[in-house]
Each structure stands twice: as C-alpha cells, then as structure tokens.
Amino acid sequence: MAMPGTDNAGVFEQGPVRINWTFSADALACDVDVSWQGQLLARKHLVSNDPILAFDARGETSPGMMIVGQLHFDASRAALLLDQLRYPGGSAPPQLLGEAVPPAPVPESAQGEVVQSRLEEAGDLFPYIQLRAWPGTSTRTQEDNFIAYSGTCTTADPRLYCQLAALLPAGDSARSQMLEQAVMFLQGDAPYTGQCVPTIAVLGPDAVALERFALAAAAIPLPSREALIDLIVQLWGQPWPAITEAMASTEFAQTLDRIWQNVFALNCVLGYDRRQRDALTRTLQAATLLGRLSRDTAPGFEGRWPPERLRNGLAATLLLPSPVFPLPAAGPARAEEPSSIPIQPYAIGELQQVKRRLLGYALGEVSHIESVMADERKVRARHERADTLSEHSARTGVADTHEDLRDGLASTLESEVHNALREQFKLEYSTTYGPPTQCQQDGSCTLMPVDTQPTRDRLADSATLARRIVQRAAQRVTTQLGEQRLQRHRHTRRNEVSQCFDRRGRANNQRGVYRWLNARYRCWVVSVGHRLMLEYRVPRPGERLVHARRDQYGQALEQPLAPAQLGLRQFNDLSLDPQSPCYYAALAARYGVEVTELPPTPEAHACTVFESGTPLLSQQLPLPPGYQAVSASIALASASQGWSMRGSIGTAGFTTEGNASAVLPDIALAGQTGALPISIVLVAPAGAEEPSDPAPTATPLPVYGLNIDVRLASTPELLAAWKSRLYDRLIEAWRRELLRYFDAAGASPRRHPDGQAQQRSIRLELQRAGVRGLLGLSRRRTGADAPDQQVAPTLQLWLDQALEWPELTYTLIDDPEAAPAPDPDDAGLTPFLQAAQARVLLPVAPGHENALLYFLATGMMWLGDDALVPTFQATLEAAPANQPATLRYLDLADDLKVISATPAPAPQREAWELMVATDISVLQDGEALPDFKDEA
User: Fold this and answer.
1) Which superkingdom (predicted)?
2) Contact between residue 870 and residue 893 where contact means Cβ atoms under 8 Å apart
C-alpha cells in the first residue's frame, strides 16, 4: 500500500518489501530506496535519461529467496510507477506509486543564519558494506554515455584495426604480432607511413578546435545546447551551419577514423604517449557530441538535451571494439597455478562505517560474592609464580685407543697346555684279609698318562678350548679426556594477592558483592559513499602464515591431524604395510615419536648345538617371550661310521645316523612357549664296547656336531601388546602437539594474546593473497613472466593507491574436519588457521574505478585521468562462485557513471548504545544484590 508523505516523499509497503521515494524540488528527478525486511536492497537516482530501477536479488545462503522488481520514473508527469514486484510469498500489480507536488515558494533566509553540524571524533572504524544489485544498460543510455567505433573492414584493408583483427587466428603468437604492428604504426613504419598523429595540430585547426572545445565545455556548470554551439562557433571560427556541413563530410569522417586508429595503437602500447592519448580521446568526445547535436533538428530538441545529458556526452567513454580488445594473452594456454586466486568485480556497494565513542563504564553481572559471619576472620590469598630456566651445556671429549694384536707360537702354547693338564694321581691303600688267615698290606702308587697324553676326552676338549683362547692375545689401551660445562640461569617472578575479611568483635554478618565492569559505547552509522567492490576467495588462507611462523620462529601453527582422521581409531588399526595410511613408521614420523621398539617379526628361530662329549646330553632351550615352537630341524655331522643318535625335542622323538651327515627337517612340535626340553643319547655301532668303559680297548667316542634349529611363530598377543604400547605413545604425542598448536594460535586458556595484533596478521595475509591474485592476473593477461622484478614493484604501488585495503572485509568458511578450539568465544587465530576458504570483499578507491576495470580486462596499469579510461564490449570472466546477471564491462562502467552523478545522501545520525564486557571486577557499594528486571 502506497502512503503519501511530506516534502514530495512517499512510502510503499507490501509484506516485507518497503519502497521509499523522494522527488527533487524541481520534480526532474526522484531518489528511490528499496528495502527487504529492513535491509537496504537497492538505491538509485532516477532522471529522464535514466528512468529505470531494476533490482534482482538472490540470497547467498538460500538461492530460492529471490526478489525481482522494476520501478519507472515518468519525467513528463513527474510520477513514479511500479512496473513489477515479485518476492517469496507474494507479488504486487503494476500501479502508480506517487506524483510530485508543485514546489512551494522559497522564503528568504535570515541574514547571518549559519547551521553547523559537527561529528565527534570516534574510535575504531568497522566497515559495513551495503551492496546494490548488479546493473543493466539500456540502448539510449549506451548512446549517451559511450562512443563506439563504427568502422568496418574489407579484404586487404591497410588500416591498423583491420590488420589487428586479421592476426587473431594466429593463436599463441597473436598478441606479440599485434604489439609489433602497433609499434610500427606509432613509429611511422610501412605500411602505416603518415598515419600516426604525434600532436593534434597535425590533423588541422578543426581538430585543435574540438580538443579546446572539450576542455572548455567541461568547465561549464550547467551546459546547454545553445551555450555549446556558441562555444564551438567561437573556437572553430565558422558559423554553426558550416560546422555542421564540415562534420558531415567524408574528409571529416576519415579524420575521425584516423584518430580511432591512433587510439587503438596507444591502447596496445599503453604508456607510449599518455598526453597524446588523452588529447585524442577528448577530440572524439567533442566530435561525437557535436555530431549528434547537429543531426537532431526535429522540433522540441531543447527538451531532449537537458544539462545532465550534455554532461554525459562530454564525458562519454570510448568503447573499444571486440574481439580485438582486450588483446589476447601471450604464449600458449597453460593450466592455472594451484595458488591462483581469481578476482572479479562483485557489485557497487554503498560503503558505510560504524563509529563508536566511549561514554563510560557501568556495573554488569555478579562476578562473585564474599560472605563473612559475625566474629569471623577469613583470609583469602592467591599466589602466582612464574619460573624461567635457561640452560646451556657444552661438552668436549678426546678418546685415544691403541690395540696390539699378537699371534702366539702354537708349539709353545700347546706344550704349556699339556704341562698344565698332565694327570698325576697318588693313591694310598690298606687291605685286610682274614680270618681264618689274617693279612694286612699298606702301600702307595702313582698313575702317569701314557705317552704324556691325558686319557680323558674332557681333558682333550679343555686343551682345545685353551688353545683357542690363548692362540690370540690382544692388548687395548684407551685414554679418554672429557670436559663438560653447564650454565643455568633461573628467573623467578612471584605475585601474591591477599584479602582479609575480619568481623571479629562484630555482632552482624557482612556480604560483599563483586560485579563485572562493562564499557558503554555510543555507536552510529556514517555513509562514506559508493564503492566498486571486488571479490576474491582464498583457499586455505592460513597456510602461508603457518609455513612462515614455522620457518622463522619454529612456531607450530599447523593443526595436527587427529589419528582418527588418518584411520587410526584403535590400536589394532596400526599397520606394518608401508602403503597403508596407518603405517606405524609414517605415523611415528608425523607425531615425532621415536620408535625404540621395532615390531615383532611373525617368525623367529632358536638354535642350539651339541658337540662331542658324553653319550647322554640334555638341556632346556629358552624361547623368547611371545613366541611358540612350531617345528624343528636337526642336522648331524660326524666323521665316525656306524654311530647314531636318538633323542626327543619337546614331545617329539627322533633318530638319526651319523654316516657323514644326516638331516631331519620339519619335526612338528606342540607349540611350546618359554622353554623347550631337548635330550639326546649316543648309540654305539653293533658289536662295539660301551663307551663308558674306561678300559684301553674300549671303542673311542666319535667326533660329531648336532645342530638343532627351532622355528618359532609369534603369538597374537605379542603383536597386540606392541601395537598397544605404540598407540598410547602416538595418542600422547598428538595431544601434546594439539596443545602446542592451540597455545601458539592463541586459543589456549593459558594465554591471552593481543586480539588486534591477530586481526592485523589475518588482514595482512588476506591482502597478500589479493596482491598475488592481481599479479597473477597481470601475468596471465600480458604473458609477461620475465619482467616481474621490474613491473611487480610498480604494480604493487599502483594497487596500494587504487584499492582501499584498510576497508577490506572477509568471511571465513570453516573446515568441518578441523578440531574445535577449547574456547569458541576466544579462539584467537584458530578460525583463520582452520578455515577452508576466506571470502574477501575489497572496495576500490574513488577515482580509480575505471582504471581498475581496465586492469582486470588487460592486466595493464592505466596511468592518467580516470574519466578518460576506455571500456570494452567484451564480457567479464565468470567466477565459479559468483555468476552475476550480466558480465559486460560496459554495464559496470555505465553504472559507475550513474553512481558518480547521484548526489550523496544526507548524513544520518541514528545512534545506539552498546555494552561491551570487560575482564575487570569491582566491589559495589552496599551489599544489596542487583535487580535487572527493569532493564529487561
């Protein structure tokens, strides 16, 4: 429903849509605001040559929430019409919203009356961006605000534009050939001899008059058709009909085409002659506007050319034709770098700033309460101690080792062994015989070895052992000199706070109420103006900050992945496969765990040897813990014939004969653990004497060696125990890394980092990402990789002037797989470091909008007047995350013209108070508890 207002203003409300409008005092313009649920959606200054306001908004989080509408300003009736309105849940039919009323007489102002408005100095500024809908351009607006090239090419046309168009099919080398043709044109080389225009005077006095006309007409506050005609007549020196006839001639058309060719060349080689480029642009602006005025001779032409339309014609933008402009990129097409950041125009936003000023402090919620009873004394003390220990250790050592190895003489050693092992036995005996006959005999005897050789085999074995031991003697002399220096420095800081509540000798109780202190701020919104907004998205924005802190300061800002994210959810998930993501060695290296205990092998062996000796031998073969006996292999080697061995190993028996050699493989065992009993017995050949008989005629014992190899298999419990121990160490190491990460990121409850410093770090990283994206765009457009050292510093300085980096705003898109911070309300750098993506909106500085659009299209810097920057008929490159309704540079450049002509809105001073909690607590006066019911 439309509701009329005062001062040529009105309001239309239907559902959540609200339209406010205000007619100008002369009823020639109308300012319109469209709001949705209290949020400004669109704002425009409607005039006769730009009477349409079309808005089309779609929610970012809910694409189905779309609001579409169009308003029309009828300048002949001074009325505002609603053409269409459609929103979720309803629509409105076309209707008349309001008409302007005749202006009232303006009273004379009192002499000396002065109205002053002063804005107090405020604290920090927080940018708030209100975005407009993406613009559209009508045909009439395009004719008034832009100048298009109308030339056509024929076969073998020698003009520069035609030669450039013919080079487009050249592919990768098209740009280099185009630049070569442009340089040839500017230098006057064949086939462009005589076509370059170094100065306007070369084109004759008519062209000089047009340039002077453009400069003089721009200084007229309210230009009119008659004033412009009088000005050109004065500068040209001819009457208006003669000027009209001259501009309609073929010679004048050829002159304009020559100017266009020079403009094309100067836009190919940007910066070749900036002064001449601007002069040629002004000449085309003047010639186009005067040509349109000379052709419009129908009755009523005075009303068709208001001052605003004439100003637009004087500031018309050159429209470089497609597909030649912008020039194609140089070099072959290559895949985008992983770090490339696409940057696109997002919209034209009304930049507003929230200012705040500190008013004072107020008591907040209760912090804590101290209660002391009568005749009671309570002491509360808090002690804090911080110790810093620095230790420096230095140790030096010198070791000198001398070894002397000598081989002894075999004969001497053997003789010494025989002498030491020679048997000497002395026996004393006494015998008695009887009865009936009795006899007593006493005596002694000495037994000596036969041929000075011991008769017992163990003596021979001892001699062999002694010979092996004494055969080689070694001498080792080691000298070590060590020095260790240790320096320790300890610094201790102590802080003690003691509170004493003494009610001794008092008859009543006492209560003390401590309350938090809140800061009171006064806030208000100030409109700064309209800005062209750029949008870019930074994947993993904290990645470079992580690497920089780690390389420079050794600070771990990279969040350690939880073992569960790698597939390690329990100890049984540990793998011995190097290709597995849960490979134990890779996990140990990731979390810094030293593997001191290698994983148990699935199979092991236990061995023992029986050598020549007594006929019956037995022993317990110890088995390593966690392994069980599976099978055994027995090998017998002997030089004697006819001897055999019998025995048992565990519960399995075996028999083998020692004819040269014998092997019994894979004797199955019963899975014994801990120890394995082994027993063997030596069996003499048939007809031989028992070897235990010491008579000289007994058969000598054979020389043999019995090797027993037991194959072992690990038990499941052994591998599970090893995995459990390593799993505990990995989890403990991950927890330590996570605590260090949160501590470095400022999210640990033990630290209270500087929030403003963290914000500066975040904004600096996002700014660097934007600069990298713009530098990459320049490289992709121009194909210039080598001149980075020369171009990049200049380009960065130009970007600092063209972009308002302090007003950068960002939104962090969280990674759902990241670990949450211990305290979400005080997460520090954690949200930035864990973000999967950062969406950044960046405003363009006033006076650089057209130059920035030119840079986005060509990758080249425009150094000159922003009003003389040409634009393109080509379309913007569609960003994958933001597909605007129209993608033409032309539409965006036209909307910038409309915004620049729109008067700034009146400053609004709607203020509100904001309470900000602090970490300060104070003791309130009195012991009454606070009551907040009046503040609800």
Assistant:
1) Bacteria
2) no
Per-residue CA distances from 683 to 156, 608, 667, 694 (Å)? 116, 21, 21, 17
| The residue to which tokens 């997002």 are assigned | 346
Instruction: Give Cα 76 distance to the centre of its chain.
Output: 57
H-assigned helices in 690-715: none
State the CB neighbour count (10 A cutoff) for residue 890: 21
Distance separating alpha carbons of residues 264 and 163, to the nearest angstrom: 11
Q: In this predicted model, what pLDDT tens digit does every residue of 783-822 receive, in sequence order? A: 765 445 667 788 888 999 999 998 898 998 887 766 555 4
Residue matched to tokens 């008591």 = 363
pTM of the shown model: 0.57
In this structure, of 29-38, 83-92, 432-441, 761-770, the range with the lowest mean pLDDT score is 432-441
CA distance 341 to 343: 6
The encoded tokens of residue 542 equal 């904290």
Smallest CA-to-CA distance from 928 within 393, 369, 477 is with: 369
Nearest of 267, 141, 186 to residue 857 by alpha carbon: 267
- Whether the upstream peptide bond of residue 306 has omega within 30° of 0, thus cis, is no
Amino acid 799: pLDDT: 92
Predicted local confidence at residue 589, as pLDDT = 86
Instruction: Tell me how far apart the terminal alpha carbons of the chain are, to the nearest angstrom.
Output: 34
Q: What does the alpha-carbon distance between residue 534 and residue 520 come to, in Å, rounded to a whole number?
A: 35
Given a contact cutoff of 8 angstroms between Cβ atoms, the answer to whether 8 and 101 are in contact is yes
Q: What is the pLDDT of residue 495?
A: 80
Question: What CA–CA distance (Å, rounded) separates 151 from 153?
Answer: 7
Assess contact for 440 and 359: CB atoms under 8 A: no
Gap between the Cα atoms of 841 and 882, Å rounded: 12
Question: Who contacts 866 (Cβ-Cβ below 8 Å, separation ≥6)?
Answer: 847, 848, 849, 850, 851
CB 871 within 8 A of CB 854: yes
Q: Which strands form 616-622's sheet, in the order they lie side by side?
A: 616-622, 675-683, 644-649, 652-657
**Per-residue pLDDT tens digits for 233-281:** 999 999 999 999 999 999 999 999 999 999 999 999 988 889 999 999 9
Separate counts of helices (H) and strands (E) for the chain: 20, 31
* Tokens at 442, concatenated: 């006493």
Q: Output the CA torsion sign for 228, 234, 239, 245.
A: negative
Handedness of CA 796, 800, 802, 806 (dihedral sign): positive
Nearest C-alpha neighbor of 834 from the set 762, 882, 763: 762
Angle at 287 between CA 281 and CA 290, to 5 degrees: 140
H or E element, residue 794: helix 788-802
Where do the domains of the chain lie, and which CATH numbers do they carry? 2-103 (2.40.128), 150-320 (no CATH), 406-471 (no CATH), 603-719 (2.60.120)
For the stretch 181-221, pLDDT in tens is 999 999 999 999 999 999 999 999 999 999 999 999 999 98
Amino acid at 451: D
